[in-house]
């Protein structure tokens, strides 16, 4: 079974703090993704990466950056956290193949509260 | 661009009722289609998938058939249980794309 883990289930931070969310997958997947999930808005893609040191902006990259130094690890960084970044953050990974072989597998999520 | 539209919730049913959650899509080519489920406090889990027209995906009593003529992938279950209470997401992936397009999700609540 694919396993995607996220470093924290719950996180509370102050406005202006730098926040790191870590995601690790154990299936040698090329692609990794970061989403945020908010009530009424569904899942929105923040950034994704299709290879080590490669990244592409998703639909809502503003206020975020990412790092992928190793294939299994994909970090989401909030340079200066703001209250509107309070959300559920979901990490996912997939093989770099077309069709259903590119099925995404999700971690359990990190619920972030910015005060 | 590609998009997914699913019925808005919340949907509330009694145990053992028949479930349908509608999903339609817009896409070029031949996308793969998915249903994901999110139980309270958890991440998304793949429920079922279909890769070509007339394929039927099934898992845990849930089924969905890829209908290209109606561009639909409706989720059905013959007899729901309280444990099926969750949010269900319809999604599509283009044949050459890495990204998945998700619907907005449908919250399902089952009464005992």
Structural class of chain A, by secondary structure, is mainly beta
What gyration radius of chain A follows from the Cα positions, in whole Å? Answer: 13 Å
**Helix content estimate of chain A:** under 10%
Which ranges of chain B are low-confidence, i.e. pLDDT below 50, for 5 or more consecutive residues? none
* Oligomeric nature of the chains: heterodimer
Number of strands of chain B: 12
Give the biggest beta sheet of chain A: 7 strands, mixed
Element order of chain B: H for helix, E for strand: EEEEEEEEEEEE
Global mean pLDDT of chain B: 93
Note the overall shape of chain B. globular
In short:
The complex is a heterodimer of chains A (115) and B (112). Chain A has 115 residues and is mostly beta strands. Chain A contains no helices and eleven strands.
Question: How would you portray this structure in words?
Answer:
The complex is a heterodimer of chains A (115) and B (112). With 115 residues, chain A is mostly beta strands. Chain A contains no helices and eleven strands. In chain A, strands 2, 4, 5, 6, 9, 10 and 11 form a seven-stranded mixed sheet that branches. By secondary structure, chain B is mainly β. In chain B, 0% of the residues lie in helices and 50% in strands. Chain B has strands at 3-6, 11-14, 19-21, 23-26, 32-38, 44-50, 56-59, 62-65, 75-77, 86-93, 101-102, 106-111. Chain B is globular, with a radius of gyration of 13 Å. The termini of chain B are far apart.
Which key terms come to mind for this protein?
heterodimer; A: 115 residues; mainly beta; seven-stranded mixed sheet; four-stranded antiparallel sheet; B: 112 residues; six-stranded mixed sheet; 12 strands; 0% helix; 50% strand; globular
Topology summary:
The complex is a heterodimer of chains A (115) and B (112).
Chain A (H helix, E strand, L loop, with lengths): L3 E3 L3 E4 L5 E7 L5 E8 L3 E8 L6 E2 L7 E6 L2 E6 L8 E8 L10 E2 L3 E5 L1
Chain B lengths: L2 E4 L4 E4 L4 E3 L1 E4 L5 E7 L5 E7 L5 E4 L2 E4 L9 E3 L8 E8 L7 E2 L3 E6 L1
Parallel strand pairs in B: 2-12
Antiparallel strand pairs in B: 1-4, 3-9, 5-6, 5-10, 7-8, 8-9, 10-11, 10-12
């Amino acid at each position: 079974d694919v396993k995607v883990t996220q470093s924290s289930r719950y996180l509370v931070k102050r406005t202006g703090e730098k926040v790191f969310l870590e995601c690790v997958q154990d299936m040698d997947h090329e692609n990794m993704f970061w989403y945020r999930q908010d009530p009424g808005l569904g899942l929105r893609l923040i950034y994704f990466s299709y290879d080590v040191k490669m990244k592409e902006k998703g639909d809502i990259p503003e206020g975020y950056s990412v790092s992928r130094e190793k294939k299994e690890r994909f970090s989401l960084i909030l340079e200066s956290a703001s209250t509107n970044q309070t959300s559920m953050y979901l990490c996912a990974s997939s093989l770099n193949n077309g069709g259903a072989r590119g099925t995404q597998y999700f971690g359990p999520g990190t619920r972030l509260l910015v005060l | 661009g590609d998009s997914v539209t699913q019925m808005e919730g919340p949907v509330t049913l009694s145990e053992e009722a028949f479930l349908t959650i509608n999903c339609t899509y817009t896409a070029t080519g031949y996308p793969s289609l998915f249903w994901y489920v999110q139980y309270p406090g958890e991440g998304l889990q793949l429920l079922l998938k279909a890769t070509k027209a007339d394929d039927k995906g099934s898992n845990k009593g849930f089924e969905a058939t890829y209908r290209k003529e109606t561009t639909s992938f409706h989720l059905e279950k013959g007899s729901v249980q309280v444990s099926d209470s969750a949010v269900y997401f319809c999604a599509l992936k283009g044949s050459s794309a890495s990204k998945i397009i998700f619907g907005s999700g449908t919250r399902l609540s089952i009464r005992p």
